[in-house]
Amino acid sequence: MSMSEPLLLQIVNQHIPAGATVITIDKPIQHPAVYAADLTGDGMPEISTVYQLNSELYLLILKFVQGHWIKMALTKGLGYGVTLLTAAPVTSTARNNLIVGWQIGAIWSKLAVYEWTESGLTDIAPDDLYYSYAEIVDIPGVHGRDGKVEIALWIHDTGEAYRVEIIRWQQNQWVPATDVYRAYFPKVVKYYEQLTKQYPDYVFYWYYLADAQFYAGSYPVALISVQEALRFPEAYPSRENLLELENKIKQAMTATAGTHARVTTWLYPVSVRTTSGTRWGYMDAQGHIRLEPVLEDAQAFQPNGLAVVVKNGRAGVINLQGQYVVQPVYDSINSFSEERAMAIDSQGFKMINEQGTVLTKRTYPFIADMHEGRAMFYNENPNQTNGSSSLYGYLDASGNEVIQAQFASANDFQQGKAVVQIKDQEYALIDRNGNRLATYPYAYVGPLGDGLLAFQKESSGKYGYIDERGNIRIQPKFTSAFAFNDGQAIVNTAEDYKSNYGVINMQGSFVIQPAYNDIRELGENRYALGKAIDAEQPYIGSLYAIAELNGRILTEFFYRNVENYKHGLASASDGNQTYLLDLSGRPAPGYPRVTGAGSMEVVAPDLIKVFVDQRLSYVDRAGRMIWQQNTIVPLHPPYQVREEKYKPNRDYLVYYPQVDGLANQIEQGKLNAKLKELSQVKPIPADQQLDYTYTGDFDITFYQKQLLQLQLTGYNYPAGAAHGMPTMVYAIINLTDGQLYELKDLFKQDSDYVKVLSQIVGDQIKNDPQYSYVFPDTYTGISADQPFFVTADALHLYFNPYDIAPYAAGFPTFTIPFSQIMSIINTEGSFWRAFH
């Protein structure tokens, strides 16, 4: 529907009150405040107009319905005029937003960005979004135009000088669109070039010219302009600001000197909760999504510009453009090391290069990462020689077996040498070709470290250290001993389950006395010394202090976790907050604190990756949120799933779902109370030290028509245990009435579904090799309330760990297509009809 301005005015004048007049917009030329654009996404334009009545402004929107124009929305305006009335895709590429500039002063307007929602017209612009001039345009970024507009705001400063800010709507908030500055700021440069020619003695124009040239990427001329501004006796905005700008320009020039500007934007993984489960994609350093979140997993990009991702349950490798360099066909892929990665499929381990080429001639039960051109592997040992069920050897970077599998155990190469076990009571030191350099007749010999190796004379004896020739350098007197590094080694002297860690030098003398529950080597000449939280239960954990290599303690014992130092910073958490430490062991100035327990990592100059309380986010150095995972998942209106957090104790954390939008609020309350109960939201003492940790989470695993399926998972880890116990429960909900379905609800009342399903599962265990791990004679059938979940075409029955299989098997799951059991399904029942 195309309409001319006279026709629009004619329609509008028929629908505004008597005595009202349509406002006139003065610039760029005089024209009435009338605009036609599709605001609802139905393909038909609505008419928007601003009129004045009794000195008040009103925004009216008309919609064409069944051959007539009707009022869709009417809202009161601001100020005394309109400087802008247009429509453009701001929040979505699917429909337009109405953009209005309400004039509140001679050179000031208030920007309003309206979005049409089911509740009416909503202004998503903040109350303080003022400007002097605005440009609405889809500015190309490094990947071109994305179909949504940016808003360039020219904000008056002094004279004819304006501060320019460019913003966009991203992840339900307004963010700076710094990635398009290079495309837009040449226009700003031209504006200030004209002003500096016209007014060469006005310092503020030189300042804004230098600033614009910097953002446009024109660093050499920006340096000339800022130095021109510095020549004025009266600086603007201040001498400190000018010197700061000059320094930024010089740093940018240094970073690009002798190299081409980086063509590819570095990317960072992000997760988004969706109706299909949690999905992963990638953002840039400004928080803009560059690769859409459609992956099931996305690892960080490695220094080679490649990242391991998972799509449709299979692992592959992508580059920074999102292109697959290794197709997603593997079960998993390790990180690259020395341009090689180990890819695992159903057959075993394979070595691949950065182009995805398989280099090994066969698959192996295991291949370690590449170290010094060698990757340790092992084969099964059918003859059980050397007292080992496996035989170890080494591959070269071409995937060839350069050292045949012959050792009972092996270590990675360090400085061209590796420690291997020949047989019981015999170890050796070999070179990269497998030649034996020394032999050690001991029960255990550890990996290399500063020319010394930890060893045991007898398998139950104490640990000491030998040199590479086999000479005993430190007599066995420790209950455990780690490799030397930088002339020091961590050792334990405790004779019982309580630890007593200290640090020795290469003469065996204690540099740090053995008095600690734990000691961690942090790098950059720092240790974390740990004292037991509970001396009688040391396995619960430690509180750490930071110490120098000589044992000088720099802080109190109040960190519950400390990561390794990198470039002078280490992530630490006291259980309540997470922050970065400097080398003094104290919170580093100029970096934020984040509530919760976890870790932080500086991944870009002004971007910090935060993984706290099991959630990933990114902040800048000022602590401003750049990106975080959404906590609300919209379903079809009016339904939504809302994520809530329950953390009554530092060792107890649950993210649980709550469903909104049910017509019956009482039933909604009952449903949400049950979801809390199933998620293990229960009273937990706040200040008491628990003897276990518990984490719970959820995902939306299926959503179709009125059926919503939530997977509720938990992990209870007793302190000191070998592993924790996972739990998994499915809440299968009818959104119409909040009913939670049981297995029996899927079947006809007179059907013996337990018998039928038991027979099918039994046949799968008997005939399908993938279920060979099931304990013999443990399966006796399913129960009437067997744990289950559904997908579009199948029923899935599962068992908990240890029910019928070992712990490592996880939750043994059996898939039964609906087509196989249609005769007993109650196709007229509410369960089936909820998603059919």
Automatic annotation (TrEMBL):
SUPFAM superfamilies for this protein: TPR-like (SSF48452)
Domain DUF3298: 744-819
Residue ranges the record marks as coiled coil: none
PANTHER family: DUF3298 DOMAIN-CONTAINING PROTEIN, GLR2918 PROTEIN
Protein name: WG repeat-containing protein
